[in-house]
Amino acid sequence: MKYLLLLLLCCGPVTAQSEPKAASIIKKVDENMSSDSRVTESQMIIHGRRKSRTVSSKGYSEGYEKSFTEYLAPAREKGTKMLKLDDRLWIYSPATDRVIQLSGHMLRQSVMGSDLSYEDMMENRKLTEMYHVKIAGEETINGRLTWILELDAKVADVPYVKRKMWIDQKRFVPLKEDLFAKSGQLLKRVTMEDIAQIGGRWYPRKMNYKDMLKDGKGTDFIVSKIEFNAPISEHLFSKAVLKK
Amino acid sequence: MKLAFQLAYKNLIGAGLRTWLNVIVLSFAFVVVIFYNGMIDGWNEQAMNDSIAWEYGQGQLINDKYDPLDPFTLQDGHGMLPPEQTKGLTPILLRQASIYPDGRMLTVALKGIEAAQSILDLPTEKLLDSKAALPALIGNRMAASANLKEGGEVLIRWRDKNGTFDATQMTIVGIFDSNVPTVDNGQIWISIEKLWKMTGLQDHATLFIVNNESKIGKIVGWGFKSQESLLKSLSDIIQTKKVSGSLMYMMLLAIALLAIFDTQVLSIFRRQREIGTYIAMGMTRWQVAGLFTVEGSMYSFMATLVGCLYGIPFFMYIADIGIGIPPASRNMGIAIAERIFPVYGLGLILGTVALVVTSATIVSFLPARKIAKMNPVDALKGKLQ
Amino acid sequence: MIKFLLKGVLGDKNRSVLPIIIISIGVALTVLLSGYIRGAMGDIINQNARFDTGHVKIMTRAYAENKSQIPNDLAFLGVDSLINELKTSHPNMIWVKRIRFGGIIDVPDDKGETKGQGPASGMAIELFNTNSGEIQRMNIPSSLVHGTLPKQVGEALIGQEFVDKLGLEIGDKVTYFGSTMNGSMAFKNFTITGSVRFGTPALDKGAIIIDISDAQTMLDMEDGAGEILGFESDEIYDDEKALELTEEFNARFVNNTNEFAPIMLRLKDQNNLAGYLDYVDVYSAMFVTIFVIVMSIVLWNTGLLGGLRRYQEFGIRLALGESKGHIYKTLIYEATLIGIIGSIVGTAMGLGGTYYLQVVGIDIGKYLENATMLMPSVIRAQVTPELFYIGFIPGLFAMVFGNMLSGIGIYKRQTAALFKELEV
Questions:
Q1: How close is the nearest chain A Cα to the Cα of C194, in Å?
Q2: CA distance linking residue A55 with residue A68, whole number of Å
C-alpha cells in the first residue's frame, strides 16, 4: 500500500508534465513518419490461409488527398494503376484497358486480400493534426526503450479514435501500434521492424498489420525504397496517367 | 323439366353400383380441387399476413438512394424526415457491420428499430427489458448460420457516420422464429436509439414502415412502395404453385368425366327402345337428348352431395390441424409457415361446384347428341344403330 | 383358346375397341399423373439439385464450412484430375465444375470510363462443354430474354434488369471487377451475348453467367473450382446411390487432416433437404394411391359396362347351348386380355408422356402474368420404376374385377330373359 502511494506520488508529476513532452515526441515521430509527398517502392506479403504471396508496387502520394499507385509484380498485377483523389478512386487494368471508378465505400475494402484497407494504406496525415497525445508509460521492445503514447482523436473523421504507440526513445520511430475502436476494443496491431535511416530520418522498413479480431498471420508491408518530399509531377495525379 | 330430373334420379338410383362408382370418383375430384386450392389460398393468405406482420406493414417509404438489392447503397441510403411527416411511420435504419463468431468474420446488416414499436411482430420488447449494454435480436436462421444462442455474446464492429471504427460485445437477448426469411438471414436487430448513438446518425432512417397507407403524400428523396407492390413477387410464386397443381386435379377430373362419358355411351346404346318410346310419346329428339344430359349432370349433383358428406369433416379437420411443411421449403427465401392452414372461400367452393357440374353436363351431352340423329322407328324397335 | 379369344376381341370392335381405348387412356393417365406428381412435388428438390446442391457435391472442407460466403479463396484445386478420376470410377454420372463469384459489373461510356455499375452475382458453368448438360440444367434457354448463348471466351449473359437499368444492348461490352481467389484485383471484359431472367430479383439484377474457363482465368483459379457437382445421367436423384457414393468417396480422405481436402455431400445432406425428401416420398405416395384407387373405380365401372354391353350376345350364346360357366370363363379371359392389351398400350403411352414431360416439361410460365419465378416455371414429370407396373392395377385388376361382377348377371338372369334382349 505504501509503495502504491509512493508510486502514485511519483507518477503524478510525470503525467502533469507529460503533455508538452508527449506533444514534442509525437511531433518528432511525425517528422520521421510523415511527409508532404513521398515516392515508395514496396512489397506487400499477404499471408493467406493457403499460401502467401507478394505484391510489389510503386506509390506516389501528396498530402492526404492524392495518391497514385502502380503495381509492378506479380505478372497478374503488373500495370494495374490506382489513382485516389479525395474519396474518389479509379483503377486501371491493362488487361481490359478500362478505367473503373469506385465509390468511397470501396476505400474501406481490403487491398488485394490483405489486412489493410485502401484507407489504411493512404493514411498520411500528421498524427499531431489528428490526435491528443499523452505518455502512458515506458516499455522495452526488442531491446529498445520506448515510451508508450496514448492518442485520442481530436477530429471526427479518423477511422481509429484511439491509438497506442510504442515510440523508440532514441529514434522517435514507432515500434508497435495498437488501433482501438471507440469502445476501447483492440482492432488492429501494427508492428514495425528493420528500422533504418533513410534520407536523414528513421523509418521502419517492415511493418506487419494484423486484424486482431480475425485468425491469421496478418500482412507484411516491406518498404524497399522510399523518397520523402520528392517533387512529383502533377501529371501523376490526373486521370490521364491511368490509361497509358 | 321436373320430370327430367325425376326420371334421371330414378334411372341413376336404379343403376346401383355403377352410378355410385361414378359419383364417388367425381366426388374425389371435387374434394381434391377444393382441398388443393384451399391449401394454396391458405398458404397465400398466411404468407401475405406474415410478410405484412414481419416486414411490410402497410407499405414502406424507402430512401431513394437505398436499393435493397445493392448492399453498397447502405452507406449513403438514409436520411431524415421533418418530425411532422413521421407520424404513423416507424423508422428503420440499416448499417453494415461485421460480427466475429469464433474468429470468423461475417458481414451483417445491422437494423435499428424502435424498441417500443408494435407495427411489426419482431419481439422488440425484449430489447427494452434487457440490461445488457447492447441487446440484440436475431432470427433462428441467423442464429444457426453464425452459431449464436440466446444469452450469448458476440463481438460486433461497425463504423459511425465519420467512418470511425467502433466495436463492442453484443448480447443476443432473443431469437425469434419468423416465417419470413428476409427479416432473418444475415440480419441483426437492435434498438434504433442505440444505433443512432452508435453511429451518430440521430433521427436518420433508411426506410419507414407505414402504419396507415393513406397518409403518405409525395416526399422528395423518398419513394413509397405500397403493400401490394411489396407483396407482388410473393403472390406470383404462389400463383405458380396454383397452376402446377391445377394440372394434377384437372387430370383427376378428366378421369371422372371419362367414366361418365363411358356410362353415357353405354346407356344410350342400351336404352334405344326407351328413347324411341319417348319420341313416340311426342318428345322431340332434342328433348330426349336433354333428358339424357340431365341424367349425366345429375352425377355431378350427387357427387357434390357425397363430396360434402366426407369432405366437410375432412376439410374441417385439416383446417384445424394444418398441413406440416418440412424445413427445406422454408429456406427458399419466401414466407412459408411450418404448418399451412387451408382456407376454403365461398368463391372457391361455388366455383368448384360450377366446374364439376358444367364439365359433367358437357360430357353427358356429347354422347346424347347421337340421339338427335337417331331414326325414331329403328330406335323404338331397339335396332342397333 | 387364347388365340381364339384374341381373334374375337380384335374382330369384334364393340367388344374391344371402346374398352381398350378407355383402359388405355385410364392407364396412361394413371402413369402420367403418378410421374407428374413425383416430378411436381419434387420441384424444390430438383431446383436445388440443378442450381445448387447437385446430386452430390464436392468442395474443400474449408469451403463447405463457409459455403454461404462463397469463399473462393478456399476453393478446390486440381479439379481436372479429380473429375477424370470420378469419370472413370463412376462413368454413369455426369461431373461438372462450377464457380460462384461476387464483384461488380461496370459499364463504360464512350471514353471507356465508368458510366454505371452494380453488384454482380456471378455463376461460371461449363457453357461450352455441350456434354455437361449445364445449359439445360440451369434452365438457361427458357430464361433467355434476348440474344443468344455465349459461344467463346469473353462472352457473357447478363441479368435482364441490369441490362434495362443501364440501357445495355446485345453486343455491348461490360467489365467485371472483383477479386481473385488470392484476393488480388480481377478484371475482365465481357461482350454481352444475351440477357436472362430467372425470376429472383437478386439474380436478375446482377446475374452474370460465363464459361468456367473464363472464370478460372479471371479469378486466378487455374484448375480450380468452388464446387464439383455430380448428377445421375437421367437427372433423377437416387438417395441410396448418392449415400453409397458419398461414403465411399469420403472414406478415402478420412485420415487426411488438410482443410483443403475434398469432401462430398449428397443432396439430402445439404440445404435442409432431408425432411423435404421424406415429405415428397410420403405425399406423392399418398397422391398416387388415391389416384390408383380412383382409376380402379373407373375401370371397374368400365368392366361392369363392358359386361352389360354383351348381355344380348350372352343370350344368344346361352340359347346355342353354351354353359353359363363357360361364358363366364370366356368373359373373364377376354377381360384379362383386354386389360393386358389396354394396360400395355396405356403404360407405353403414359411412360412416353411422362418421359416427354421429364425432358421437355410443361412451361407454365406463360400462364403467369409478369411473374417473377423463384419457383421453376417448367414443371417436369419423373419416370420412376413403379410407373412400369402401377398402371396394371387399375387397368388389369380393376377391369377384370368389374367384368367378374357384371358377369354374375349371367347366372342371375334367365336364359329366356337374356334371349329376349335379342328380340328384333
A1: 20
A2: 16
- Nearest residue of chain A to residue B169 (CA atoms): A185
Q: Domains plus CATH for chain A?
A: 17-34+126-225 (2.50.20.10), 37-123+230-241 (2.50.20.10)
Q: Which of B32-41, B50-59, C306-315 has the lowest mean pLDDT?
A: C306-315
Chain A neighbors of B168, CB-CB under 8 A: 181, 183, 185
Is the Cβ of A166 closer than 8 Å to some Cβ of chain B? no
Average pLDDT over residues C339-356: 89
* Listed residue (C314, C260, C300) closest to C393, CA to CA: C300
Q: How far is B223 from chain C (nearest CA, A)?
A: 17
Domain ranges of chain C: 2-43+276-420, 56-236
- CB within 8 Å of B363: residues ≥ 6 apart: B257, B258, B260, B261, B264, B296
Lowest mean pLDDT among A1-10, A27-36, A60-69, B36-45: A1-10
Task: Give the pLDDT of residue C406.
Answer: 74
Cα–Cα distance measured from residue B47 to residue B182, given in angstroms and rounded to the nearest whole number: 12
CA-CA distances (angstroms) from residue A204 to A191, A227, C137, C142, C314? 9, 13, 56, 60, 112
Residue among A14, A12, A73 nearest A42 (CA):
A73
Q: What is the mean pLDDT of chain C?
A: 81
In terms of Cα–Cα distance, which of C112, C114, C210 is closest to C159?
Answer: C210
Rg for chain B, CA atoms, rounded: 32
- What span, in angstroms and rounded, lies between the C-alpha atoms of B155 and B171? 9
Q: Do B258 and C26 touch (CB under 8 A)?
A: yes
For residues C230-239, give the mean pLDDT: 84
pLDDT of C293 over the 90 cut: no
Higher pLDDT, B371 or A175: A175
Task: Enter the pTM of the model.
Answer: 0.74
Radius of gyration of chain A (CA): 19
Is B334 in the C-facing interface, judged by CB distances under 8 Å?
yes
Q: Which whole number is the average pLDDT over B331-356?
A: 76
Q: Decide: B156 and B89 in contact? Cβ < 8 Å.
A: no
Task: Report pLDDT for B384.
Answer: 52
Q: In angstroms, rounded to a whole number, what is the distance separating the alpha carbons of residues C177 and C185? A: 7
Taking CB atoms and an 8 Å cutoff, what residues of chain C touch A76? 180, 184, 220
List, in sequence order, every beta strand (DSSP E) within A17-170: 37-47, 52-62, 66-73, 81-85, 88-93, 98-102, 131-141, 144-153, 162-168
Residues B137/B178, Cβ–Cβ less than 8 Å: no
pLDDT value at residue C251: 92
| Angstrom distance (rounded) from CA A223 to CA B250 | 75
Mean pLDDT, rounded, of chain B: 82
Mean pLDDT, rounded, for B211-215:
67
Touching check for B243 and chain C: CB below 8 Å? yes
Q: Assign B64 to helix, strand or coil.
A: coil
Query: C34-48 pLDDT, tens per residue?
Result: 888 777 777 777 777
Please report the ipTM that was assigned to this predicted complex.
Answer: 0.80
